[in-house]
Structures are given as C-alpha cells and as structure tokens.
Amino acid sequence: MSAYILRRLLLIIPTLLGIMVINFTLVQFVPGGPVEQMIAQMQGQGDVFEGFAGAGEDAGASSAEELEGYAGARGLPPEFIEELEAQFGLDEPPLERFFGMLWDYMRLDFGESYFRKIGVTELILEKMPVSISLGLWSTLIAYLVSIPLGIRKAVKDGTPFDHWTSGAIIVAYAIPGFLFAILLLVLLAGGSYLQIFPLRGLTSENWEELSLLGKVADYFWHIALPVAASTISAFATLTLLTKNSFLDEIKKQYVITARAKGASERRLLYGHVFRNAMLIVIAGFPAVFIGVFFTGSLIIETIFSLDGLGRLGFEAAVARDYPVIFGTLFIFGLIGLIVGIISDLMYVAVDPRIDFEKRMG
Asked: What is the pTM of this model?
C-alpha cells in the first residue's frame, strides 16, 4: 500500500502542473484583464463589461488606431497604462509570469489580491468558515438521514413505505436548491409569513457578547436555512445508493446461508451486510464533502448573504483578480487530489480485502 500511496503522491505534481497550464493559457485569451478593470472603475464605468458594451455602440465613430490596445484606455497617457501593467505584473512575457507564479507556489507564496490588498491565503481563510459550515453540515445531515432511510427501504422493498419515500426523495431531488432557499426565506425568514430565522449572515452582531452556549445556538440558528437549502437534493442519490447496495448484498449466498443458520435479521444487516454494502457510501464521504465544499452554492450564499468561497471565486473571476483565481485553483486542486488518496485509504479501512497495489500491478 505504501508504494501505491507514493505513486499517487508523485502523480499530484504533473496533475497540478497540467491544471495550471491549461487554466493559465485559457486566461490569456479572455478579454478584460485587471488593467481594463481598473481603467473602467477609474472612468466611472463600474465594470469592464460595461466598457465593452459602450465601445460597441460608438465603434463606427472610432478609428482603427483608437481601438488598438485596451478598449477603455482612450485618452489616457501610455505611461499611465504602463504603470498599471507593471503594478499588476503584466509587463512581463506570459511564459515568464507563469514560471514565476509556479516558483512562488512551490514556496507556498500565493501573492496578494489585486483589488483587496490582502494575501490570497488570508482571504481564503477568511471565507472558509462559511463554506466549511455549508459543506460539513450538509454532508453529515445527508448521510445521517440517507443511510438509515436507505437500509429501511431495502428491508421494506416493494412495500408502500418504499414507494412513498421514493416519491418524496425524488420530489426533493427535483427542487432546485436556490428555489427552495427562496421558499424558506419567504416562509420562515420574514419574507411574507413567519420570521423565525435570521435573513443573513453566519452570526449575529452581538456574537462576541454571547456565552459559549449562546454562540453555539446563534451559529446553528443562522446556518439552519442555508444548510437545508444545500441538502434538499442530496438525499436522493445517497438513499437510493444505500438501498441498492443493501439489496445486492442481501441476495448473495453468504446472507442466505447465515439466515438458514438462524441468524437474526438485525445481525444479518449490521453484522454481515453492512460492511460490504456501505463500502461505496462510507468510503466516498471525503470526496462527497470536498465536492460540496468546493461547489458551495454561489446562489445560496448570495440569497442568504453569506460571504463564502463560492462568492469569492465568482467575484475574482469577474474582476480578473488573477492571484485569487490561480491561488484558489492551486490550493483546491491540491486538496482535491489529496482527498482522492484519502478516499482510497477509506476503502481499504472499510474493506481490508481491497489491494490497490495488486490492481495497479
């Protein structure tokens, strides 16, 4: 197993390099870099995309010379544009910038945001509590509900209970998370009916004044609706996966033999079937959590006014904040690859019969 882990760790290097090369290359062809963003803000256009729209309207009245270079830089001295490029480090050739970025990343130096004047690492750590809260609690609740429900559905396969619960989880799966979030706000957060839960934020303004128990209660009070909206569609896949895994195992010969020897149904389910049936479900927990963590819903964060990694990534992409874009891409890519290795180790922990070295050999 150690040789397999070493090979997987060594594969992280070319994989990360490939991710960075592809994304860095794509960024070079995307219009509206940080210099144009800065120019658009200085000229009161607010957003570089508005500048593109404005440029399109009066393009007929502009000469070819005026359209060269930055679209929003008309009338600005070239020296000023050069200073902006030097400020953002864009005065160097792309290849030189790329290798410089890789060298900094090897030393865990992810640079500073162009527009927020704060280190990328500090920025990620600042936004991480929101994403961890959504990802961790959504995953835990989904597992705590789906596993017992899936086992029960397998035992009651074909009964009215199985049919009704299948219908309920399919309906829940069909409801978009953002639509359910709006419904929760309208019904329970002072939209039109009740005002039981707060409308925004992860904590109250008087957080520091609360006792430890009060802080815990306040935290769960704020996170209840966002977590519910994030979890609504997660039950179906896990529940049906659990049910089908148990059904497959229950039909196998060793279960029939154990039942013939007089083993109780409880012992059959949790003493014989559980480990084999739950292999995929339990071992996949790290990957599921990281998936929810990475893709922390931008729309849900926006609806509940939560400043998490979803909004950070979106705002960085819109503003062309390259240090934040590439820094988060590198960090999350590295975490994702490591979690893939952890998932494999979880498979071995759940079922020691699995040997990845022999499979690779």
From this structure: 0.72
37-80 pLDDT, tens digit per residue, is: 666 666 655 544 444 344 444 433 333 333 345 544 555 566 66
Distance from C-alpha of 93 to C-alpha of 335, rounded to nearest angstrom: 30
Q: Which of 109, 144, 167 is the last residue of a domain?
A: 109
Q: Tell whether 158 and 127 lie within a shared domain.
A: yes
**How many other C-beta atoms lie within 10 A of the C-beta of residue 268?**
18
Measure the CA–CA gap between 123 and 307, rounded to whole angstroms.
11
Of 76, 109, 142, the one marking the end of a domain is 109
How many CB atoms lie under 10 A from the CB of residue 224?
A: 17
Domain span at 38 = 34-109
Nearest to 316 by CA among 23, 14, 21: 23
Distance CA 308, CA 288 (A): 18
DSSP-assigned states of every residue in 286-317: HHHHHHHHHT--HHHHHHTT---HHHHHHHHH
CATH number, domain at 343?
1.10.3720.10
